[in-house]
Amino acid sequence: MTETRPDSPPAVDPPDRPSAWPWAVAATAFVTLLGASGFRSAPGVFIEPLHAEFGWSTATISSAVSLNLLLYGVMSPFAAALMERFGMRRVVSVALVLVAAGSGLTVFMSEVWQLVLLWGVLVGVGTGSMALAFVAVVTGRWFVRRRGLVSGVLTAAQAAGGLVFLPLMASLAGSVGWRGASLLIAAGALLVVPLVLLFLRNRPSDVGTLAYGAEPGDVQPEEVVVGGAVRRTLTVLRDASRTGTFWLLAGGFAICGATTVGLLNTHFVPAAHDHGMPATTAAGLLAVVGVFDVVGTIASGWFTDRIDPRKLLAVYYVLRGVSLAFLPFLLAPSAAPPLWAFIIFYGLDWVATVPPTVALCRERFGARAPIVFGWVFAAHQVGSAIAAVGAGLVRDLTGAYDGAWWGAGALCIVAAGLSLAVRRTGALASAR
Fold first, then answer.
1. Nearest by Cα to 158 from 343, 22, 358, 297
2. How much of the chain exceeds pLDDT 90, in percent?
3. Which residues of 204-227 are buried (b: 16+ CB within 10 A; e: fewer)?
4. How much is the pTM?
C-alpha cells in the first residue's frame, strides 16, 4: 500500500553565497538527457545493417524500434514515481546500466526476439526513465527562480541528443559496423554513471542548501512516499484525471506530439520526395529543424519565467497550425527560400511547448507535477503514434499528404483553445 506523510526537511542555514549545487545538478541532468536522447534514437541507423546481416525485414526491425518509442513514453510517469521513492541518483544510474546492457549485449544476438528484448525493452525502459518527466523532477526540486529557463535548456538537451549522436552512429555503422556503434553507446552510458553518482543529488536538503532562488522561510515540508511506485503512479493518474486541467494539458500535448514527431518527423521526407526533392536534401532540412529547436526551446523557457504559460502555448500552437497549413504550397523539388523560412520557424517552435506545460503542471499539481507531466508526456507519444499511422493512411487514400498537413493545422488551433481554457491557480498565477 502507498502511504504518504509530511516530513520536515533538515534545517538549512541560509548560505553566505549562492550554492553551486543547483547548477551542478542541472549540468549533470543535461549530460544525462543528451545521452539518453541519442541512445534512444540510435536504432534508426542500424535498420539497414541489421537487414543486410540477418535478412530481417524492415518491419520486423522496426517493431523493436516501435516498442522502444512506446516504452520511452509510458515509462516516464513511473520513473518520476520511482524517483520520489528511491531518489534520482539510483533511478538514473540503474537506467544507464539498462541502456548499456541493452546496447552492449546486441553484439551477441542472433534472433529477432533478442533484438526486441534488448533494443526494445531494455533500452526503451532505460531511456524512458530519463525522459522529460526527469526535467520536471530536477526543476521542481532544485529551482524556484529560473525554473522555466532551466526547463528549456534541459528539454533542448533531450531534443539535441539525436543531432549529437546520430551522425557519429551512422558513420561508425558504415565504417566499423553496427556492433562497434552499439559498444560505443554502451560505453557512453556507463561513463555517465560516475557523473550521476557524484553530482546528481536528490534534494537540496541532502547537501544542506536551498533550491536556487528559495528563501529559508520558503522551504516546504517534503512529501515522503512509502510503498509501491506503481501504485503511486496510478493513484496520481486517478486523482489528476478527475480535474479538467489534466485533460486540457494532455489533449494539447497529444496534439503537440501528433503535429511534430508523429507527422513531420515521420512523413516530411516522403512528402518532400513526392514533390521531387531528393531524400537526402529533405533529411538535411529536418536536421536544421533540430538545430533551431534548441534555440527555440531555451527561449521558450526564458519566456515561461515571465509570461502566462497558457498564452505562450496558444501562440505556439496557432503559429504552428498556420505554418502547417501553408506547407503543401512550399514543397518543391528544391529548397526555395519560403521552405527555408518554414524550416527555421518550425524548428523554433518544435518542442517550445514543453517549458510552459511543465510550469502549468507544477502550478496545478504541486509536488505531484513530475508524475502528472509524465502522464501528459505519455499522451504526447500516443498522439505521435496516431498521427504517424493517420498521415500514412491519408497518403494511401488520396495520393498526397495535403490533407494531413491541413488536418494537423486545424488540430493546432484546437490545442490553442485547450491551452487557454486551463485555469490558473496559486502564487504563480498572481505573480505574472
1. 297
2. 32
3. bbeeebbbbebeeeebeeeeebee
4. 0.76
